[in-house]
Amino acid sequence: MTIDIRRRLKALKYIDIKAKSKHQEIISLKSGILRSQQYNDMPKAESPVNRSEELNVLIIDKSEKIYREIQQLYKERDELVKAIEALDDPVENLIMRLYYINGHSIKEIERELPLSRRAIFYTKESAEEKISHTLHPPAL
């Protein structure tokens, strides 16, 4: 179970980048929305199907799907940050925040805190285990 938490925590620092990319995708999609049909005296096509309307509906549907994905990304981020913030031990909280939220390496954390590399590593592992139990409590 801890492996799943590590994977989720490692993805934490990329959530904002991913959400920004998805917002950009929506902007690109919306720039492709076609204007409604213009009526004039020109001869009409044989097909009674309105292709531009179908395309616009597809673009809107895809945009809504991307918005839901963005909401899910932010929900995941909020859940993980709350789990980190809920750690009772302030050292665990700080190490997890520095490592997973701020993206510091163990070496950088070692320079900032008066702890050995081994102590940081074990504290991080302990915190990951606690978060794992918080987010996925063992079945009774």
**Strand content bin:** under 5%
Mean pLDDT: 87
Broad shape: elongated
Individual helix count: 6
Report the sheet with the most strands, covering strand number, pairing sense and barrel closure.
none
Point out poorly predicted stretches.
Answer: none
Number of strands: 0
Structural domains: how many: 1
The class by helix and strand makeup works out as mainly alpha
Write the element-wise H/E pattern from the N-terminal end onward: HHHHHH
Cα Rg: 24 Å
Q: Helix share of residues?
A: over 70%
| Termini separation | 16 Å
Describe this entry's structure for a reader:
This protein is mainly α and 140 residues long. It has one domain. It is 72% helix and 0% strand. The chain contains six helices and no strands. The protein has helices at 2-12, 15-31, 51-85, 90-101, 106-112, 117-135. The longest helix is centred in the middle third of the chain and has 35 residues, at 51-85. It starts with a helix and ends in a 5-residue tail after the last helix. 14% of the residues are buried. InterPro entries: DUF1492 (IPR010861), RNA_pol_sigma_r3/r4-like (IPR013324). This is Sigma-70 family RNA polymerase sigma factor. Pfam families: DUF1492.
Brief description of this entry?
With 140 residues, this protein is mainly alpha-helical. The protein contains 6 helices and no strands.
